[in-house]
């Protein structure tokens, strides 16, 4: 079952309300209702002042970051770092917010780490309207994501420094994992940027110039993270190609070594096979020095073939 929490900020002093009181609240103070674990929530779990169109978007099972203005409010979907790792394929968890001048309704299916910072600011009495709330939420989400994106870049830098010494197969697995993480993050980071830019362009009185500045700042941070994730993806692809080339070079070197050894022993095999035939007429078959003579002859042939390879620089690699 979903859990619900409600806050009201009256004259800079926050206090919690019972969620059922939100629908009947008629004061002019800023109120925030948050529904967590909304996977099984229905329309009746949301207050009636939320439009049906917005309520459907808040409770949708699949969302993509966006921002749309409607009926004097704004519907915002964002993605951010979760409190815990989710079991689904998405790296980031969603938060859906219906924002009006003095009322905010937010819904999450999984706990969002950034909401702790927003609640701290709410309890500190820093919100006066919905614009303040969205700006704080955008700043908190981008601040939570920034170190995670930076860690991907640092991990890829470490892979680049180990490319000459590490196990190529293990290193390739790590690079593939980093590339997969970068793709998964960029899938939502770039739309987060677009959503913040769209929010900053909405012509509502309750979105102040300071709020728009914070929204643009969050959008710029999302844009920088999207660019860094794109760079991580491209660098990972280049490293993967470099590892493929190194593996091919390693195979070539081993094949060359095998070929050199085979060429050295090829004439020796011919000589020993010829003299090892069980037929009459083999020269010097009854001489005591014949065995060592054949050994010396084979050694001379081996040195001659090896010298020829050395002259042709086959042994340099």
Ends: how far apart? Answer: 67 Å
List low-pLDDT spans.
Answer: none
Fraction in beta strands: 5-15%
Gyration radius, in Å: 35 Å
Strand order of the largest sheet: 2-1-3-7-6-5-4
* Major sheet: 7 strands, mixed
The count of strands amounts to 7
Helix content estimate:
55-70%
Shape: rod-shaped
Question: In words, what does this structure look like?
Answer:
This protein has 317 residues and is of the alpha+beta class. It has 7 helices and 7 strands; from the N terminus they run ββαβαββββααααα. The protein has helices at 19-22, 52-58, 114-123, 130-161, 168-201, 209-275, 290-311; strands spanning 3-10, 13-17, 30-36, 66-70, 73-80, 93-99, 103-108. The protein has a 7-stranded mixed sheet with strand order 2-1-3-7-6-5-4, with helices on both faces. A hairpin with a 3-residue loop joins strand 6 and strand 7 (103-108). The longest helix is centred in the last third of the chain and has 67 residues, at 209-275. The two termini are 67 Å apart.
Features:
alpha+beta; 317 residues; 56% helix; 15% strand; 7 strands; 7-stranded mixed β-sheet; rod-shaped
